[in-house]
Amino acid sequence: MPIELKMPALSPTMEEGTLAKWLVKEGDTVQSGDLLAEIETDKATMEFEAIDEGTIAQILVPEGTDNVKVGTVIAVIAGEGEDASTAKAAPAPAAASAPTPEPVRAEPVEAPSSSSATAAKKDGPSPGRDPESGQMDKGERIKASPLARRIAAEKGIDLSAVKGSGPGGRIVKADLEGAPATAAAPAQAAAATPAPAAAPQQAAPFETDIPHTADKLSNMRKTIARRLIEAKQTIPHIYLTVDIQLDRLLKLRGELNAALEPQGVKLSVNDLLIKALAKALVQVPKCNVSFAGDQLISYSRADISVAVSVPAGLITPIIVGADEKSVSKISTEMKELAGRAKEGKLQPHEYQGGTASISNMGMFGISQFDAVINPPQGMIMAIGAGEKRPWIVDDALAIATVMSATGSFDHRAIDGADGAQLMQAFKQIVENPLGLVA
Amino acid sequence: MADTNYDLIVLGSGPGGYVAAIRAAQLGLKTAIVERENLGGICLNWGCIPTKALLRSAEIYHYMQHAKDYGLAAASISADLDAVVKRSRGVAKQLNQGVTHLMKKNKIAVHMGEGKLTAPGKLEVKGEKGSETLTAKHIIVATGARARDLPFAPADGKRIWTYRHAMTPAEMPKKLLVIGSGAIGIEFASFYNDMGAEVTVVEMLDRIVPVEDADVSSFLEKSLKKQGMTILTGAGVEELKATGNGVSAKIKTKDGKVQAGDYSHAIVAIGILPNTEGVGLDTLGVKTTKGHIDTDPYCRTNVKGLWAIGDVTAPPWLAHKASHEGVIAAEAIAQELGNKDVHPHPMDARNIPGCTYCHPQIASVGLTEAKAKEAGHEVKVGNFPFVGNGKAIALGEVEGFVKTVFDAKTGELLGAHMVGAEVTEMIQGYTVGKTAELVEADFMHTVFPHPTISETMHEAVLGAWGRALHI
């Protein structure tokens, strides 16, 4: 029996992805574990491995196809001893040289492939039925009206994820009209992640006379947009700023780096601040929380998401249990994560989760800023540049290296006084940094 | 004392009300129906059915007059209006008795009298034998509508007629003025024109049958003019007075001139008014728009347990829309009362066909080409004339065409518009397709029987893609 390869959900929030590249072609034999394709998800490019073995009978979604919904059949594998040409689900393309007679056309009852979507887009509906003739989905039929199939193909909606309201549960046009993006999301994915507050709308074509270029949004950019809107529209932010003297921390860093040099470890200020934030969160657990509708989730471990700027946008790899890790361990992990983040090779579990975030713009000379909370987290710490400032020491004016740190807190979950306590603890830890290496 | 507590009371027994009652009874609901006049309502007593009987007589009369075209001879042909009307009344009576029988068969309690809502779930019925109070878990208002009068010239039944008077004329009008060119106006204009009257149609808008596609309007106008009718579009009746032996009218024509004219009779067909007076809607705070009751796609009003269907609600005001809503409402009520096996579907006005039985007939469903473009669709339009159809030529009915409007992107059939012989019997083909959400390929892949006029429907689909075969 032919095996259908479906667009995998490579992360809990993934609803669709770009089939960036096929690493196999039709006719190739694949073993379990072989790399089949590269798939660009909302955050990273991931490799898609074969689980079953057999021959690639047909590739249904060509590489470079965007917005392939999770669950869409992207290829068909013929199992051992099966004729690859008969395993093809859709009418065979002309290239088939197999001596079999005309392939039997399957009942037009299945989710359309995205390749037909592109065809339909180009020429409008062709008079023939071919674009709609679907694949047999392991004996499970999807009931949908011909028009619903057309629209699904046009918009790239996965019909298997749509609930039909027509006779006998048939999917009709109206079922696709509501909110196609969310309606098409597989139920599990929707349950596992907070529902996006505002699904990206199909925007009207942008018109302007000003000379310009128009670039299609990357999946990462779309995700950033969606998450930021969600955060700013649903989370009442409060911002608390403290100035923190850094001299002792810088001195300690110098000493530590000298000592760690033989191990090839070079701590950054940020590595120390990650640890400081983690310790502060453990000290003030009221700020290490998530507001979850009718529940407040309090974490007993501090996993710090660290904002890393990458060419396509921004990603937040996580230092898990940063409160209990040594700074040298944090440093090594961070280097490794940031490196892979820039290559787009992070695994979902490496950037999804976290109990709080840290974002450092000091290297750009930004003295202070307010960051947007990364939901469902309860806070994010925005770190400004350490700079020499006039500083009062024992009632006398002195010069000190000082940075401003601003915590953004989800005010639904965290009261101002609790936020202030966290800022105080953070300041205290940074200004008395020996605790970081204790 | 009889038990007057029901699951459902239907107020009004027109094609909406009596069908709702039957469906409710089928679903096991204890059902009553309240009617003030005739079971079956306007439709089968004073509307759709008796007019079709009249038009059938006119059609046969027309064929007899054209017998020569078919190689036949018919000498001394004449029409007996009284006999034609008598036949029409006989048809209405037969169907009225049919409804009485259906109520009995389905054990639906019939309460004759004027019904009025006095409280949620409570209806007072004033009949000839006095008043009684009925109670029910659910009530459907299906009181229908009536003809709208000209404010300055109310119908008198002698010279100035509504549809109702026009259906039982005491004498054959010689020179008839028809005010309004909607379905009712045009049908009577066509009937009396075929019967030999000199007919003038006045329409305020810039074309006749204005809800239809513009191509249909202009085709029909040419056809009716060819049959001898006078058609004044963009014209309004400013004055209408009954005189001793006729009516005199002042009509402001398109160019702004007022022209006076004398006619033997006038038919006022300028629209309808919902029958909401005395129903007690105010008592319950029922929401209305321009007098018509607001409902959701399952026919719920804003008042819990109160439903409304048919002409008393939003357009289109057609009998088959009312009947269909009756079924939806009855099923939705059964569902609310705990029946888990019914699956009412929401009403979709875009899939309700409309038919006008003038000569030539008109039938349509969905959006006109103009409306489709207005709604932002990129369209593909097919148009196939009857003259390219073998059966139409054989029947001597080459006057007509079929027009289809498809969405160019999705292949959705947005609308279909037909004019010509038998089109009212064919429109259901497109309606089934639209309801099932078929796309152009499905129509193309359907085998249409030969020789039938319905082949023009196939050709009109092919034509939208430049593939028509016989043109």
Structure description:
With 438 residues, chain A is α+β, with helices and mostly antiparallel strands. Chain A has helices spanning 114-123, 146-155, 173-177, 180-183, 187-192, 219-234, 247-260, 269-283, 327-343, 348-351, 416-431, 434-437; strands at residues 3-6, 16-22, 29-30, 35-40, 45-49, 54-59, 65-69, 73-78, 237-245, 289-292, 295-298, 304-306, 308-310, 313-315, 318-319, 356-360, 379-383, 387-393, 396-410. In chain A, 28% of the residues lie in helices and 23% in strands. In chain A, the strands form 5 sheets. In chain A, strands 9, 12, 15, 16, 17, 18 and 19 form a 7-stranded mixed β-sheet that branches. Chain A is elongated, with a radius of gyration of 27 Å. The model of chain A is unreliable at 89-139 and 179-202 (pLDDT under 50). Chain B has 14 helices and 24 strands. In chain B, the strands form 6 sheets. In chain B, strands 1, 2, 3, 4, 5, 6 and 19 form a 7-stranded mixed β-sheet that branches. Chain B has a 5-stranded parallel β-sheet with strand order 8-15-9-10-11. Chain B has helices at 17-26, 41-46, 48-65, 81-105, 163-167, 183-194, 214-226, 281-284, 319-336, 369-374, 390-395, 423-435, 440-445, 455-464, and strands spanning 5-11, 31-35, 109-112, 114-119, 122-127, 130-141, 145-147, 160-161, 175-179, 198-203, 230-233, 236-243, 246-252, 258-263, 265-268, 272-274, 288-289, 292-293, 306-308, 354-356, 362-366, 379-385, 400-407, 413-420. The chains are: A alpha+beta (438), B alpha/beta (471). At the A-B interface, helix 2 of A face helix 13 of B.
Give the structure's gist in a few sentences.
The complex is a heterodimer of chains A (438) and B (471). Chain A has 438 residues and is of the alpha+beta class.
